[in-house]
Amino acid sequence: MTKQQVPSSWRQSGLTMLWLSGLVVLLDQVTKQWILNNVAYMSERIQVLPFFDIIHVRNFGAAFSFLSDQGGWQKVLFVSLALLISAGLGLMLRRQPKSMKRVNIAFALIIGGAIGNVIDRVMLGSVVDFLDFYYGNYHWPAFNIADSAIVLGAITMVVDSFFAVQQQGKSNE
């Protein structure tokens, strides 16, 4: 479909931010492939900084390994939820104006992160995590680029909501 064939309403919607979702998926999958090919599972640790290592672990659950010890049904649940949320956010992007940049970016980041982790769950049965931040013996649960995009998207949504409240307050004055 050429630019002239795409309805003008699509060009003016938040869908223009889907390139960011694609970039997140690409970066996430490239980094995970590198980990799969170069870092031994659960036994190798590459120290990058005194508080940050690259490792290779798998998450069979959700955030913080939630439900990871279940019999496998959680994979279907997490894939279904991620696809439903991504579709819902995509629909919202379609309906929002292009000018709502912060919230469109937030939705695109969340979609990209969700799809990145769905690819792992479908192809590998688990999510590859490799970013390990720690202080002394305390380690934050390992995570990946997709997880980072989801968190950054959620933070961006919260920040956007504060700006929306401020804008509303100014317009009511």
Automatic annotation (TrEMBL):
Listed Pfam families: Peptidase_A8
Pathway per the UniProt entry: Protein modification; lipoprotein biosynthesis (signal peptide cleavage)
EC number(s) on file: 3.4.23.36
Reactions listed under catalytic activity: Release of signal peptides from bacterial membrane prolipoproteins. Hydrolyzes -Xaa-Yaa-Zaa-|-(S,diacylglyceryl)Cys-, in which Xaa is hydrophobic (preferably Leu), and Yaa (Ala or Ser) and Zaa (Gly or Ala) have small, neutral side chains
Catalytic residues in the record: D129, D147
UniProt-listed PANTHER family: LIPOPROTEIN SIGNAL PEPTIDASE (PTHR33695)
Protein name (Swiss-Prot/TrEMBL): Lipoprotein signal peptidase
Organism classification: Bacteria, Pseudomonadati, Pseudomonadota, Gammaproteobacteria, Alteromonadales
